[in-house]
Amino acid sequence: MKTKTVANPWGRYCAALVLSGLAGLTSAPVQADSLRVLETRNDKLKCKYDRDIEARTCVVATSGKYELTLKVSAATLESNGIDFASLLQTAEADQVFSLSLGVGPYQFDGEVSEGSDFQLTASEVKSEWVTEAEKSLDADGTNTKTVRVETVKFVGTPNGGIAFRIKGLTLSDENNEYGESLLADDCGQTGKVAESISLALGDGEPIDLPVTMKCKTRTTTKHKGDAGDFDLTRLRLTAKLGDAGSTQ
């Protein structure tokens, strides 16, 4: 198996910071805090006849995708002691702005810095991070194609607050192992689960927001003769801001 992630100064995230594709995150004022999360994960059974052992062999392939849109208002930032206007003024002077976002077990750390294609002024910060991998199309990795496994977009203004948009893909099969996950690893069974978001901007202290996740899972068992029995799971989850006890 051959995999490759775009090189970047923050580990698993590349330094491809571009402004194209940020149309969905405009600089219009954020009216209220909001969160929209949708994540799915599906198992599929892949079987083939192995001539070497003269028997059918089967493997489970798990694919997934996730989308997150988070908006945090200027009022919420201010009430948590974050002076976003001052942060942007300092960032413009230094031409560097760091941020981090934790969603349950998921963690993103990024930096808008000099030498990258970004927008950073005292009135707005806007950037994009892209992670890529090489997908193996055959067992020995001879044939591959480049896939975009995650895109993180961020925009912020002193009056409008901040917004994140994250999209990602995951794949785990006999030839590939790539991609992240937002909340699926915490979704053990159908029902509501309490989660949290941790957000840090610049050198400020992180703020925490309560999140409630709703999980739906279904597992079926397939019997494939001598190959045995295989449990296949389909998972779908959504999440929004608020404590589990107050979520309708």
Overall description:
The chain contains two helices and twelve strands. By secondary structure, it is mainly β. The longest helix is centred in the middle third of the chain and has 11 residues, at 84-94. The termini are far apart.
Mean pLDDT: 85
User: How many runs of DSSP E, i.e. beta strands?
Assistant: 12
Tell me the radius of gyration. 21 Å
**Structural class of the secondary elements?**
mainly beta
Content of β-strand: over 45%
* Straight-line N-to-C gap: 45 Å
- List the total number of helices: 2
Spans of at least 5 consecutive residues with low confidence: 1-24, 26-30
The biggest sheet amounts to: 12 strands, antiparallel
The helix content, as a percent range, equals under 10%
- How do the SSEs run, as a string of H and E? EEHHEEEEEEEEEE
Shape: elongated
Task: Describe the protein's topology.
Elements: E1 34-50, E2 55-72, H1 74-79, H2 84-94, E3 96-103, E4 106-113, E5 119-120, E6 125-136, E7 144-157, E8 161-172, E9 177-178, E10 191-201, E11 207-223, E12 229-241
What's a concise summary of this model?
The chain has 2 helices and 12 strands; from the N terminus they run ββααββββββββββ.
List keywords for this structure.
single chain; 248 residues; mainly beta; 12-stranded antiparallel beta sheet; 2 helices; 12 strands; 7% helix; elongated; disordered N terminus
